[in-house]
């Protein structure tokens, strides 16, 4: 059984890696000043933050049309028996539901929509593991089962410089945004039951990142093989410095640096920083 792996642009997996592992990508879009851009296709993360700084209106985002999924799944049906379509949390986007609807509309291929319940490179962990398992000849049901097993170990925490973007985008309540602004805190956020909620309120950026380090330390103390991603919103230098520090502290964890691209960056804002990790299922 030959299984294709599909994801959306919010996994922010570099194109060369997608090409290398035969990963197919459906882009979400960001609308800036009336212009629509497909992220990872028409606009890069750095271009996006530059555009936002010169705009007097916050951008908006949109999910892919169902027809885009249908077209891709039908194309894949010529070469694959099944497709696992892995997407950002259904609690913050309808993208996953679009894959579900498209899967019911196509024939000739088994479609397994998969809700990562998260986003960014942590979503990408599922995609990369799925692609490696598929290349080993594992069937779709087995891959989904292993991804479910990995889900038990997935964690991600992120800090925003300003709660305004999350509040205005409807991803965080007004009350939480007001409280955060009044206290001048650097809130740590995470996903619970597919939505973004506060984890802890911390007074400084440095202390917030240190708290995330401690949480990683607790998670990897079981001696398992872990992968972790430092994720930034246009703060690459800071992210690289943090990664170097983390590699010294946790030599048994495989680290990379990724980013909050246009769609997720719209809701978090420039300057956000986070880290996510998961137990590795493949070498």
UniProtKB/TrEMBL annotation:
**Species name for this entry?**
Rossellomorea marisflavi
**Listed PANTHER family:** DEGV DOMAIN-CONTAINING PROTEIN DR_1986-RELATED (PTHR33434), FATTY ACID-BINDING PROTEIN TM_1468 (PTHR33434:SF2)
What Pfam families would the database entry show? DegV
Output the Gene Ontology terms for molecular function.
Answer: lipid binding
Protein name per the record: DegV domain-containing protein
- What keywords are annotated for this sequence in UniProt? Lipid-binding
Lineage top rank: taxon: Bacteria
Upper classification of the organism: Bacteria, Bacillati, Bacillota, Bacilli, Bacillales
* Cross-referenced InterPro entries: DegV (IPR003797), DegV_C (IPR043168), DegV_domain_contain (IPR050270)
